[in-house]
Amino acid sequence: MIINTTSKKLFTWLDNRFNLSPLLEFMRNKQVPVHRHSVWYYMGGVTLFLFCVQVFSGILLLFYYKPGIDSSFESIRFIMTKVQFGWLIRSIHSWSANFMVFFIFIHMFSTFFTRAYKKPRELTWISGFILLSLALGFGFSGYLLPWNELAFFATKVGTDIVGAIPLIGDAIKIVLRGGEEVTGGTLLRFYAFHVALLPALFTVFLGLHLLFIQRQGMHEPEFIEQLPKDKKKVIPFFPDFFLRDAFLWLIVLNILLFLAVFFPWEIGNKADAFAPAPEGIKPEWYFMFMFQTLKLLPGQILFIEGEIVGILFFTFAAIIWLLVPFWEIRKKPGKKIQPMTVLGIISVLFILIMTIIGYIA
Amino acid sequence: MQRRNFVNFILGGGLVGWLGTILYPVISYLNPPKITEANVSMVKAGPAADHPNNSGRIIKFGRKPVLLLKTENGEFRAFNATCTHLDCIVQYRKDTKQIWCACHNGIYDLQGRTVSGPPPRPLEEYLVNIVNDEIIISENRGDS
């Protein structure tokens, strides 16, 4: 009772100063459509939750991590072996990073297949694409921070790929590496990207992405949009949808903890700039399809180097994907299948097949 | 031109200029300075007797890795160990007697030429001389 009156008093105090009532009214009336594709609405929320886990566990890791070629690997080993629950925090950070990228992909493809990117949500798609790129940047820069063999060569390959972009590639490669080669300078730059630059950018675009979603509401698939208003099923965002979201977060957190406890993330061998690339070298799974494609391309395609053809192909594909809301292959009358759906399926199959080949080859 | 448009033009131009003065030093700052290093053109790689036949080893050639290998016939050869595909470091494989890059399965023969896989160019060869049983690797300037 006392708490109730105190919170009411506090709210009135704040409301008098910031006029919170319209905001509260907006949240009270916010509704989420219910239909057979509603499950995809939760994927963005899970990604947001995993981002929070990343921020929290990342801040904790900063208390012990020391960037530098003589200290990075050693400090991670120290965290894993000496610091109380250090192994848990580091494993959660690594597992959660992978989960986050996984859920971003699920979220993106579900948006694509339900065609939620269409007018008026073009900018939500674009901000989401930027967030995906930043998340991949997080993954790529974070991968190097333990300064182990796999990360060292993955960074060499990854930055060399950037270097192959015609005209500007070499300049970007040098800025990324902090010089011609992957050295301690690269490690410091990647550390700066990972803990300062990328989080700042990510927060801005995440804010915009969430703002757009709040302002426009959830997208309704076409078959729901066409229904009369009284036939549409909805649930309130607060508390129904939010509680379901929170329940899913709890499940994901439990899976994360299970994996972190029973499959702690490996630390590998310390990087040596004068050692051959070890057998079985591979990038993070979400770069595997690109890695595998580059592996399969021959040295020369017509008169261009194979890798440049591959890089141009992926750059072109990414631009097409980014601009999806602004172009469309229209369905021919009488045809049942959406050409855009076919395109999406081809993309997913390409990514899946190349990833699988990458792991079994 | 109306007075208002003129003022807008001047202010807009000023803003672009101002952004340039901010961005130019930032971008220049991020571009790492060139570090002048001693130009290494030759390194000693220890006694020849230390290398068994059919083996390979990475040698530091300044800041570059060089693969020094000894063939089955006891002949020494040296190549730039950086794969011409995507910058990984290659290794000598005793079983196949070839040079191999683990990153993308690039294979070179013992002349440094691409046999299979994605490498677009052969490996750059270095000269190997043995003076008083000591291996000396030097840059192949093409004049020898």
Strand content of chain A: under 5%
Largest sheet of chain A: 2 strands, antiparallel
| Element-level helix/strand string of chain A | HHEHHHHHHHHEHHEEHH
Distance between the termini of chain A: 66 Å
- The low-confidence parts of chain A are none
Overall shape of chain B: it is elongated
**How many beta strands in the DSSP annotation of chain B?**
10
Give me the strand/helix succession of chain B. HEEEEEEEEEE
Structural class of chain B: alpha+beta
Mean pLDDT of chain A: 92
| Strand order in the largest sheet of chain B | 1-10-9-4-3-2
Global Rg of chain A? 23 Å
Strand proportion of chain B, as a percent range, falls in: 35-45%
Q: Care to describe what's here?
A:
The complex is a heterodimer of chains A (361) and B (144). Chain A is mainly alpha-helical and 361 residues long. Chain A is 68% helix and 3% strand. In chain A, the strands form two sheets. In chain A, strands 1-2 form a two-stranded antiparallel sheet. The longest helix of chain A is centred in the middle third of the chain and has 33 residues, at 184-216. The termini of chain A are far apart. Chain B has 144 residues and is an alpha+beta fold. In chain B, 19% of the residues lie in helices and 35% in strands. Chain B is built from one helix and ten strands. A six-stranded antiparallel beta sheet of chain B has the order 1-10-9-4-3-2, with no helix packed on it. In chain B, strands 5-6-7-8 form a four-stranded antiparallel beta sheet, with no helix packed on it. In chain B, a hairpin with a 5-residue loop joins strand 3 and strand 4 (76-80).
